[in-house]
């Protein structure tokens, strides 16, 4: 079946450091890929998405590229801020309902 | 309201009690999903509604779990005879699109209902 695997956290970085959170997936067909973020005390919200191979999703300085050959969708940001501290979830959607399958989440803590 | 609203935000139940969790999706949203999120884990799919029709309940862990959306808007997740392993955050999400309308996985989530079973 379909599944998503993320690097384990927590990830602790200093402000302005480079961020990579790895995500790989297993899926039949051609899924859409997502990163959702959960800030402390808030609900999950969509950060970025990519719907086909080689697409790059981007938002708020974060980027991820849909790599079909490596079945990956790694999240990157060039310079993190304290306000980026949150839990990040990689997810995929296949089929026609929009149902999401999530990874286990990666906690990011950015220190001043 | 502007977003997905869930109530109660926190619920403590004694083992064996029944609980009901409510979800108010964004007005006009066709699709509604329930997820279960255990501590330190990602959300796990429970069930899906398109309007009032429950099209997928493959993720419900047992027959103690029941969900409904009788008028195609508000939904209720009911858990009967709660067990300690039911302790989790229950997330509701909605989408304006349904099957055949280009539904893509862009969901709007509520803040969740945290259930603790003692």
Tell me the helix content of chain B: under 10%
Low-confidence stretches of chain A: none
**Global outline of chain B:** globular
For the terminal residues of chain A, how far apart are their CA atoms? 41 Å
Low-confidence stretches of chain B: none
Description:
The complex is a heterodimer of chains A (112) and B (118). Chain A is mainly β and 112 residues long. Chain A contains no helices and 12 strands. In chain A, strands 2, 5, 6, 10, 11 and 12 form a 6-stranded mixed beta sheet that branches. In chain A, strands 3-9-8-7 form a 4-stranded antiparallel beta sheet, with no helix packed on it. In chain A, strands 1-4 form a two-stranded antiparallel ribbon. In chain A, strand 5 (32-38) and strand 6 (45-50) form a beta hairpin. Chain A is globular and about 45 Å long. Chain A starts with a strand and ends with a strand. With 118 residues, chain B is mainly β. Helices cover 0% and strands 47% of the residues of chain B. In chain B, the strands form 2 sheets. In chain B, strands 2, 4, 5, 6, 9, 10 and 11 form a 7-stranded mixed beta sheet that branches. The model of chain B has no long low-confidence stretch (mean pLDDT 94). The chains are: A mainly beta (112), B mainly beta (118). Chains A and B meet through strand 5, strand 6, strand 10 and strand 11 of A and strand 5 and strand 9 of B.
